[in-house]
Amino acid sequence: MMKYKVFTILLFALAVSACNQKHEDLKDEHDHEEPKLQFTAYNLDYEVFIETDAFVVGESANILSHFSTLPDFKALEEGIITVKCITGGQLAQQTLIKPTRKGIYSFDITPVASGSASLIFEIKKNEKVSTLEIKGVTIYKTEEQADEAAEKAQPSMTNTVVFTKEQSWKVDFAAELPMLIPFGQIIKTSAQIQPAQGDEIIVTSRTNGIISYTGSIISEGQSVTAGQSLLTITGNNMADNNSAVRYAESKNNYEKSKGNYERLSKLAEDKIVSEKELLSAKTEYENYKAVYDNLRINFSSSGQKISSPMAGYIRQIFIKNGQYIEAGQPIIAITQNRNLLIKADVRQRFAPFLSSISSAVITNSNGKTYTMEELNGKILSVGQSLGNDNFLIPISLQIENRGAFIPGEFVELYLKTLTGTKSLTIPNGALLEDQGAFFVFVQITPELFEKREIKVGATDGLRTEVISGLQSNERVVTKGAILVKLSQSSGALDPHAGHVH
Fold this sequence. Notes:
The chain has 501 residues and is an alpha+beta fold. The protein has five domains: 1-32 and 158-184 and 419-501, conserved putative lor/sdh protein from methanococcus maripaludis s2 fold; 35-154, Macroglobulin (MG2) domain (Immunoglobulin-like); 189-197 and 337-416, Elongation Factor Tu (Ef-tu), domain 3; 200-236 and 302-336, CATH 2.40.50.100; 248-301, Helix Hairpins (Orthogonal Bundle). 21% of the residues lie in helices and 41% in strands. The protein has seven helices and 34 strands. Strands 10, 12, 29, 30, 31, 32 and 33 form a seven-stranded antiparallel β-sheet that branches. Strands 25-24-28-13-23-27-26 form a seven-stranded antiparallel β-sheet, with no helix packed on it. Strands 1, 2, 3, 4 and 7 form a five-stranded antiparallel β-sheet that branches. Helix 1 packs across helix 7.
């Protein structure tokens, strides 16, 4: 899998390099173009990023609009979109029933009045209408005013990288605002996954004997049903404590006592035997019957039958075919694997925080991360004393197994404590490390990103605390940051290259 990811990244770098060469060839062509104004708007369903001519009253302006669906940031491939330019109550609008290219709609609007305007995009798809609004767009009276304003509005290209919408639509990409959330003490430790109590049963031997598989060979991981016969413990070939002999003896005693009791019962009707003799025969019969019923349920003439007490799978086999075992010895562990325990130990210095643990984040051996809430988990116990064999404090959690965990594996555990203090945080996928420093790509526009160093604090496995270097209103790349970095190392792109103007 790692080789595949490296190969994919290399292919992407080669593609970007080739694209850059093409864009360099077109650079002179774009140098003479008039500067474009850029605006961005979001709602719950869409992102729109537009590049437009500066608006002049009475003159047609091209609005090149890039529409992305959220939260996957993929190109909008279909939909009827209307753009409205409203200035002082006066309206200019245009409707397009399909994109010019995938994700791109090219509008031409002629403003009818100067002043401050609003651009409103109405997206109709699958009978649902969604609205995006860009406020504070200026409609100028003259071209000179418009050109001067457009020149001043051009973003700084210092320490930035261009990553076009066409590029981001082809990869796993996302950008989002940092979140200001409660972020208390994080206790990171390793833990082991174990079967939950009640979800596992150890089947033990009830007699001495030799293990004999009854049918097909059983193996660890095999699914079993309740009552399924697994193996037999037989003592037929043993000179001492032979279960087959005891079974036959018990059966004979039962049948003999039963016949004797039935015979005396008939004689008692004619007063031929005393009541004392009948009672003694009845007691003997019931005693032998109890012994025989017990053996009959658990044994046969071939030995003790071992069956699965519940549906599940075989987690562990403690014996081998042909092995001699004694009564009480464990044979098989059967588990349902529906619930799991997480056993962890934390250092003594975290003792003051343990009473305020409210949640946890678990990362399995495959690198997948889950919150305790996603797994319907709960904290079972927090140790009040040190372990017997170490100087650590034990903690137990229970989670539902969603197929992502294997009993016995070790996981990374981030224990989260309650706090009233809020911190600015970003997803871990937004972080890039370079020579011990941490960086993020801050979105200037949806096609222009600034590489910025930030100072980080603790992490809970999913999000990382930002101490400095980032504001709450600055959107950062959270998926695909490594590809943006590769684009930067491959050379700068023309921000207008590839667009239809």
